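Researcher: Good morning. I'm working through a list of sequences from a screen, and I'd like to move beyond sequence-only analysis. For each chain I'm collecting a predicted structure so we can compare shapes side by side. This is the next one on the list. No need for commentary yet; just the structure.
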Amino acid sequence: MFKKFNPKAKKRLSQFLRATAEKLESNSETRSESPSPPQPNSRRRRKPTAKKQKQRTKSLRLPVLLANFSSRFKALSQGVFRHYRPRFWFLMGTGVALGGGAIALGAGAYYIESGLPDSVDEILTYTRPGTITIEAADGTILQEIGPVTHEKLKIWQIPDRVSKAFIASEDRRFQEHQGVDFLGIARAIVTNLQAGRVVEGGSTITQQLARITFLNQERNVGRKFKEMRLAKKIEEDFDKEQILERYLNLVYLGSGAYGIADAAWVYFSKPVGELTLAEAATLAGIVPAPSVYSPLDNPKAAKERRNQVLRKMQAQGLITAQEAEAAIASPLEVKQGKLKRLERKAPYFTEYIQKELPKYVSPEVLKAGGIVVETTLNPRWQRHAEETIERTVERYGKWQRFEQAAIVAIDPRNGQIKAMVGGTDFGKNEFNRVTQAKRQPGSTFKTFVYTTAIAAGFSPNRRFPDAEYVVDGYKPENYGDRYSGAQVSMRNAISDSLNVVAVRVLVEVGWNPIIKIAQKMGIESKLFPTYSLALGASEVNLLELTSAYGTLANRGVRQPPYGISRILDRRGRVIYQANFKAQEAIDPDTAAIVTWMLRGVVDGGTGVAAQIGRAVAGKTGTSDKARDLWFVGYIPQLVTGVWLGNDNNQATWGQSSTAAATWRQFMLEAAEDIPSESFPDLPSRIEGRQGTIKAEPIKPRRSYYNYTTATNPDGERVGAVGEASVPRRRRRLRRDRSTATYVRPERKVYRPRRSRSGYSRRVAPAPVNRAPEPAPAAPKPTTAPAVPPPASTFTPPAPPASRKD
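Model: Good morning. Structure tokens for this chain:
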């Protein structure tokens, strides 16, 4: 403790302490021997007890003891330091070093072990951060986002010359070491010292795999020790072939290529199996510095590096001298190819999937990436759907004046989307007409009107007059303004797509029940309670409309449509599994009756163009001025919806029969994978059924029919309801500008008019008693026939010469 002071200071301090102690001791003795006499007018002090006297003596002797101890310690320390000073400091330094080293090693080991994963199984399922892979139902890759390895190979798919090239270049003792090659590290140190720069690395292939999978590219001692420890664990759990396979699939080889399969395509436009020895050596030489040895960016450096790898292979006995010389003498031929991971299949569908992802995973998971999205898409059906849409627009779009088309196919039993095409050219316009476009469904919405009526207990044979009908000022019109004036059953009305009957049924059932049933079946868009609702005035999109028809195909059970079946994180763990609950929207009997009614549409109504040789149910639809052409149909295992039209809502010259023909083209291909299955049988009782819902009839302020009347040659009145009727075509008045009056135009020769689904059905008049007349000469045909040819040879008719606005 006195080492800090010089000798003079030590001496002065000792003298001061000794003098202070002597002075205190003398004062205490003087007080004890001659006590001071008592002062006048003061209290006499008591004599201190023996205990207090003893305590005071001890307190006064403490400085003396300290001074004595300091002098003795000084003498002792000088003697010890004089005889044992070198040995003392050596032993103390050694102990401190050993203790500090042990503490440092323990702390380092704890730091390394605490930063390592519990298992190294992730190397089998590893995907890089910031990546998203979207797969079809059969595992086909639809889209890859971020630094993804597109093509992953098994070890038996990799040629032996490729594996040997990478082993010779990166880890010559790969088969001998247990994860860390200490001889290789020493050899690399010597080589780098001789070269004066880093020319060879000491990391093994196993260490590189550990760094790719678990670590980053930081260069520090801690990361190196972690890498070595992980390599040992990987070698303990996996064999050499598994390690080499994963390494060759994950190693980065420049130009955006991850793995040898991607690199072979990028640099040589060929698969790995077709690589030559020189090309394999070129890829192996890229690993140390992809930006330096890329044959695309620096051919000269790449060739020199290739030759080094070939010489290493020869020195290690992996190839002969003749093979090495021939490969070295060969020119470096590069044929650049486009990265396959940049290719995109089913773009409208994959874009829809990306927009759905935030509903099922958190933003943090999406940002971290490395996820794999397994979808429900059928790749073969998707390709055929794209070809069908392209063919339809190319063949019919020009003369029917529509530029866009969309199609979607759904499995009604589980809601899985099997095909989706949202337009004709995703590169020019990414707008998805399946999910984003809301259009008027036209007559396809009548299905929900009749479904509600059946659920309310109406018989499909219940009849309504087919005549001009006005309700609260709203006047629906049949297509072509044609009315038979007869009583028509609901089944025939939906088959012929009669507008007035659909509106009349809506009045009998009510707005609210129809809207509720449509929403339960799958319509999510807002529906407005108007009389025109029966004719599809409220806008919907194709996906929800098709899904709602799927409820009928699934016997009244609603299955929400979806495209994502599972989502896996970067470690292969399932973080989302589709599990949508089915819900009964309508009773099975109602679904069976409506399906039977819709089968009549395809068998002999407006949808005959959709016949495919098996039982089909569906409905055509055309909005005002044919702006939208629809057909939605189904078999028990698949429901498909088709839309044709223009993005600017411009009127077309098309017909819904074109949409039905497009549906048929797709379903003929898809049905090859689906066994034929019958629809459910009709319930035993159709008439007088008890409804499962309650109708809420509308009470119009004013409604009336305007029946067609005519007389036959015998003077009998025909055309009234319940009597024989004749078809009537309402002609509008034409204004004569010269007289400012309205006159009726001359009656022209009858020509078949297009119905909303593409065909007009002329109702033949009932036979009347009159004399036979000579048959008039057949008029010269000017348009396509009114009755379509058989479904197998059906082509949509040509556009008419004129049309009604």
